[in-house]
Design a protein that fits this description.
Chain lengths: 341, 445
């Protein structure tokens, strides 16, 4: 899911703690801030910290003055060959090509298992908004290198590199001699584990106990663990999954494949449902509401009716038209989301 | 009865016409003009000439509505970024750099019209029923809502550097330059906000313009300076005959823009930019046209919706500078005022939209005819003159300080939205009850 959906889910989970609302009514926003921050923290750890310390076996850094697709293809092939020779996991970094303050050379790497080759194509020059600059396409700029072993991709997409940072891919050896291609292997590893949430909660509790704030200790522990966990569990709804019990588990547990992390409707629904739950929890804390309302009425007015109206309008407007829905990918969505932020 | 109707109609027409002209000027906010109008009405009242609310209320409504529609023109057509800043501005400016500035402007205008429909057909009937209930539940919680918005704003900015080289601390520090610049911008702007809101050096006679010089310095001046230095050439602009829009795009734009504008209109101190950012994250819309049109919806709902809230029967809520200024002259009294304002919004929104095409074409011709560096220099001159006339030399000094802060995001490529720390930080601290401790620590009280 997107960062804001996680953030709001965290705030919603925090609002279930009566202590959070009591503290807020006395001017103390700590538990709500803690909820939102812990809701987004796993991605923050990955994208703002860990990725800069993640070592790679092969760095592909094309020359901006003379980007050569052949060299890029050969470097990717070399990475796969290293995996074949060493029988181990290989990390490959595809560097971006910055041509000016706002211009980037786009390129894409395709792994073609049928033809047993790695193909690199130079695309157009794009600006930082990823908009191609007219007249910069290079249809003939293609590099090819033999693929040393089959590489299984979890999603059907090319590895596209353009603005800011280029992606990391990992080649994980398979028993059949081939490799699994993992996009952003540094993402959703240790940071996306329930155990880390527990550890952070305990750290908070320990520090609070040192100051003698016992109630703050257990209330903070509960808030942190629950809000961190909601991020991890929400990510399990997607394809990529998370390493749920690191360090006891070493690999990501596959997700439920219910959605892609960049999908509009599930993200908005998560945010909206969170808002409704927060509102409900706040209303419950009011001793004497002028117009009290039951939960079902809130859900009806705030969720069912608007969604039904929106759905009906959309159905009417899109009737008879083919609406193309872009296929997403969890890691790719989050990577692009980060870059466009 | 007919006389009152004609008075209201003429007033709303006059307000709309004034705002359509003033909305073309870069850097001038309609609240500045409304402030002068309020002073004028109060002055006349002191002199024994009472101006009836049927005159100034529709006029002010027309001003807010027309400005929120027309002001897109200078934002898109007169704010050309240089290549390094292109990413940090609205896609509207990308349209300009692609020779499609007119199209971008008109898509935003369609968004504003869609926003007017949404406000009048959906929000207005529901508001008197549901908003008082929501207000009763939320009124004690505004402070922490502000805090979580601040938290998300700061936490959701991702590093833009650290793209090359081997893993390690050097890469980390390179990446964090933009984030630290963003944090510094937020904190410095917050510090300036504490000073201006606690012990403003601006004369008390123009206290309602207190924050204006700072806003001009934080947002408008850096933009003009950047244009003057870099002076990117504006490509020839095409006047397209169609906008390539369909009902689905309009619906999705109203969905995301309405949410963003609604958040900004309802919650105190949350501006249209922040609301737009939150809605953008919430709705996860990838399409550029939806984003541009959503900006039009959002801006309309933010300004006009906030103004409208004051008139919602049973709500008793004042949001936005326009409403606060009107409140110094008049306290709304029931449904008749609500319907009056809704009618004025409908008339003014329709007229402003019709004015958009000729005004946008006129501005496109102006931009194509003159060197963009000169256009930016003139825009900066107008802005400086406005600040000087309204707040004097001290206002100009505040604008200069704010410009220093406003240049940080431009130079480091961080989010310009961090400049809103000027309001968010001091108000959040005050609402949580510890603002006075901070001002005492700073020696301001």
């Amino acid at each position: 899911m997107k960062g804001f959906s996680h953030f709001m889910s965290g705030v919603a989970v925090a609002s279930f703690g009566p202590w959070a609302i009591d503290a807020a009514l006395q001017g103390n926003p700590t538990f709500f801030i803690l909820g939102g921050a812990c809701g987004i923290l796993p991605d923050t750890l990955d994208f703002k910290f860990y990725r800069f310390f993640y070592e790679h076996d092969v760095y592909v850094q094309p020359d901006p003055k003379d980007p050569d697709p052949q060299k890029i293809a050969e470097e990717v092939a070399r990475a796969v060959q290293m995996g074949v020779d060493g029988g181990r996991y290989i990390r490959l970094k595809l560097g971006s090509i910055r041509l000016g303050a706002d211009f980037w050379q786009q390129y894409q790497v395709t792994i073609d298992n049928e033809r047993k080759e790695i193909v690199c194509r130079l695309g157009p020059v794009v600006n930082t908004g990823q908009v191609p600059v007219e007249g910069t396409e290079k249809p003939g700029a293609v590099g090819r290198a033999p693929l040393p072993a089959p590489v299984v991709q979890t999603y059907d997409a090319d590895l596209k590199v353009d603005i800011f940072d280029g992606p990391t891919v990992g080649f994980a050896p398979r028993p059949d001699g081939g490799f699994d291609l993992e996009f952003l292997p540094w993402h959703r590893e240790w940071s996306h584990s329930l155990t880390l949430g527990l550890f952070l909660g305990l750290a908070w509790a320990l520090v609070s106990c040192c100051f003698g704030a016992w109630s703050v200790a257990w209330q903070g522990l509960a808030t942190i663990v629950a809000c961190y966990a909601i991020h991890v569990l929400e990510d399990q709804l997607g394809h990529m999954g998370s390493n749920l019990f690191w360090p006891f588990t070493k690999k990501r547990a596959p997700g439920l494949h219910w959605m892609h992390s960049g999908d509009g409707l599930p993200n908005f629904t998560a945010v909206w449902v969170s808002c409704i739950l927060i509102f409900w929890n706040l209303s419950r804390s009011q001793p004497a509401l002028e117009h009290p309302f039951p939960f079902w009425k809130l859900v009806l007015v705030a969720l069912v009716v608007p969604y039904a109206l929106f759905g009906a309008l959309r159905f009417l407007l899109d009737r008879g038209r083919k609406v193309a829905v872009e296929a997403g990918d969890d890691a790719d969505d989050e990577w692009n989301d980060m870059k466009s932020s | 009865m007919l006389e009152t109707f004609l008075t209201v109609l003429l007033s709303v027409l006059a307000g709309t016409a004034i705002a359509c002209v003033l909305g073309l000027l870069p850097g001038l906010h309609i609240y500045n003009v409304m402030g002068v109008l309020v002073l004028g009405v109060l002055g006349l009242s002191k002199a024994g000439i009472d101006v009836p609310p049927e005159v100034y209320l529709p006029a002010m409504t027309g001003m807010v509505v027309a400005w929120s529609v027309v002001n897109t023109i200078p934002a898109v057509l007169l704010g050309t970024p240089d290549e390094s800043a292109l990413f940090t501005v609205l896609p509207g400016q990308k349209y300009l750099m692609a020779g499609r500035g007119f199209e971008g402007t008109m898509i935003t205008a369609v968004g504003a019209l869609a926003g007017a429909w949404f406000l009048l057909a959906v929000v207005a009937p529901c508001a008197p029923v549901y908003l008082p209930v929501a207000q009763q539940v939320l009124k004690g919680h505004m402070h922490w809502i502000l805090w979580i918005i601040i938290t998300f704003m700061l936490m959701s900015e991702w590093p833009k550097g650290g793209n090359r080289g081997r893993a390690g601390w050097a890469k980390f520090f390179d990446a964090w330059k933009t984030l630290l610049a963003g944090l510094a911008t937020f904190l410095l702007a917050g510090l300036l906000g504490f000073i201006l809101l606690t012990a403003s050096p601006v004369s008390h006679e123009v206290a309602f313009q207190n924050i204006m010089p700072a806003f001009v310095g934080l947002f408008a001046v850096p933009w003009c300076l950047l244009n003057m230095i870099s002076a990117a050439d504006v490509p020839p602009q095409r006047l397209s005959k169609t906008l390539d829009l369909d009902g689905d795009v309009v619906l999705r734009s109203v969905w995301s823009g309405g949410l963003g504008g609604g958040i900004a209109a309802y919650f105190p101190i949350v501006t249209g930019g922040v609301g737009g950012m939150l809605a953008g994250h919430a709705c996860a819309q990838r399409e550029e046209r939806v984003f541009i049109m959503g900006q039009g919806v959002s801006k309309f709902i933010y300004y006009v919706g906030a103004f409208m809230l004051m008139f919602v029967p049973g709500l008793n809520l004042t949001r936005g500078g326009g409403a606060w200024m009107v409140k110094t002259l008049y306290v709304p009294a029931g449904r008749s005022d609500y319907y009056l304002v809704l009618g004025c919004i409908a008339v003014s929104a329709g007229l402003s939209y019709l004015a958009m095409e000729p005004l946008a074409k006129l501005t496109v011709r102006f931009v194509s005819r003159f060197n963009y560096r000169h256009v930016s220099t003139v825009a900066l001159g107008i802005i400086v003159l406005m600040v000087l006339l309204m707040t004097g030399w001290i206002g100009l000094f505040i604008a200069a300080v704010a410009t220093g802060i406003g240049m940080l995001p431009v130079l480091f490529g961080s989010r310009r939205l961090n400049c809103l720390g000027i309001l968010l930080l001091p108000i959040a601290c005050n609402m949580s009850g510890f603002g006075s401790k901070i001002t005492a620590f700073l020696g301001l009280t």
